Amino acid sequence: MMDVLDVADRLFTGELERHSMNPFQDAGDLAEITPGAAFIVAFANACAFETDAGLVMVDTSSFFHAPIVRDSLRRWSASRLDTAVYTHGHVDHCMGVGLYEEEAEAANWIAPRVIAHEAITARFDRYRDTWGYNAIINQRQFRLPSPIFPEEFRYPDETFREELDVSVGGKSFSLHHDRGETDDATWVWVPEDKILCAGDMFIWASPNCGNPQKAQRYAIEWARAMRKMIALEPEVMLPGHGLPIVGADRVRTALDDSATLLEHLHNETIAMMNEGARLDDIVNTVRAPEHLLDKPYLRPVYDEPEFIVRGIWRLFGGWWDGDPSHLKPAPAASLAQEIAALAGGAEVLAARAIELADQGDLRLAGHLAELASQAAPDKPKVHAARADVFERRVAAERSTMSKGVFGWAATESKEATGE
Question: Which of 83, 87, 160, 162 has its CA 20 to 30 A from that of 182?
């Protein structure tokens, strides 16, 4: 078993690297933060608080880790679950309540209630409508062998809009809504313990605010939420992913750095939009401050600042990127065939893609490899080049988002060549 708080300390100081933590392998490790407050490591984490009326949990983890979390929790406390709070509706956070409902039925306890922000209902409805798309996203993003996504969801019993104070067994929990990674986000303040349950407002990585395959995220509102958290002067922060941050100075620093990163990207993007710049110009100009990305809790290992910039554009500027040819474009295959004809064939494009990759220009190589495959989707040599280029892109990237998409492309072309 991992010493959660010791490892958390060493991660914060940089003695350990974040990649040394495996959120699947380490699932189930538990730390008692203060008497009556527990943190259970998983993908995603769960928090539990003892009260005179039973347990309060903030998140119950994912559909694949919820049983491990429950077993670990039960070694710490045998109390019934009174209340579960969802920090948001992503399925790695809110899929474990059924386990505690089964316990309640078997023990003749009162069933637990679920509290969440009111927007979570629409999220669950949307997930049902787009099950196939979300299953494919998961397969692509995490490079899974097959599509996977839940089909049923435990809707909340109670919802709130802005703030909600909840008292359970003499212990107070203050629920706050702010848009950040999601439009249904809740963060929880436990004033008695000065503990902040941040949900995915903090994940030990550059904020997941630009995921290219997911619904809209909200950078500046996220930053403002962090400023609200700082004002409460928390002494412990329990994140949705990653390990606890303990100590008022460390919590304040981590939140301030994260807010500053989002504020910088927002302000620089909006400034260029106000000058009439196209998205391409903005994406290739706005950069995150390196001194922030060097922080052990802000490295772009899941999402990336470049994608956050695109998300800010999408929120404030719509889907059109400013290029008039992209407003009502020709079919991608038609454009690819025309360019291939001008170049002397799809094989020429594919060969040039490999040359560019050899020279280190993987971005331009990716364009040509994709054009070649669109122009000649049945040619194995073209797909071999495409697979080569995108495998190199996987190796060169840090973030889960980029590796997932580029790996998916490489696999497509390998399959097309019969590998």
Answer: 83
H or E stretch at 400: helix 400-416
What was the pLDDT predicted at 21? 57
Confidence of residue 27 (pLDDT cuts 50, 70, 90): confident
For the chain, what percent of residues have pLDDT higher than 70? 98
* pLDDT confidence tier of residue 296, bands split at 50, 70 and 90: very high
* 245 token code pair: 């941050």
Contact between 86 and 156 under an 8 Å Cβ cutoff? The reply is yes
345 CB-near residues (< 8 Å, 6+ apart) = 376
SS (H, E, C) 255-289: HHHHHHHHHHHHHHHHHHHHCCCCHHHHHCCCCCC
Residues 165-195 pLDDT 10s: 999 999 999 999 999 999 999 999 999 999 9
The structure tokens listed for 372 are: 């070649």
Maximal C-alpha separation, the chain:
77
Q: Tell me the H-state helices in 108-148.
A: 120-129, 131-142
Best CA proximity match to 316, nearest among 360, 366, 282, 289:
282
To the nearest 10 degrees (0 to 180), the angle between helices 248-274 and 305-317 is 50
The amino acid that residue 249 corresponds to is D
Per-residue three-class SS string for 194-221:
CEEEEECCCCCCCCCCCCCCCCCCCHHH
Alpha-carbon span 154 to 194, nearest angstrom: 29
Q: What average pLDDT does the structure give for the chain?
A: 96
Q: How far is CA 92 from CA 34, 86, 96, 149, in A?
A: 25, 11, 9, 10
Phi, psi of 165 (to 5 degrees): -95, 125
Measured at the CA of 87, the angle between CA 84 and CA 93, to 5 degrees, comes to: 80
Q: What domains can you pick out in the chain, each with its CATH number?
A: 4-261 (3.60.15.30), 330-416 (1.25.40.880)
**Cβ atoms of residues 47 and 38 within 8 Å:** yes
214-245: per-residue pLDDT in tens? 999 999 999 999 999 999 999 999 999 999 99
Distance CA 104, CA 106 (A): 5
CA gap 380, 316 in Å, rounded: 42
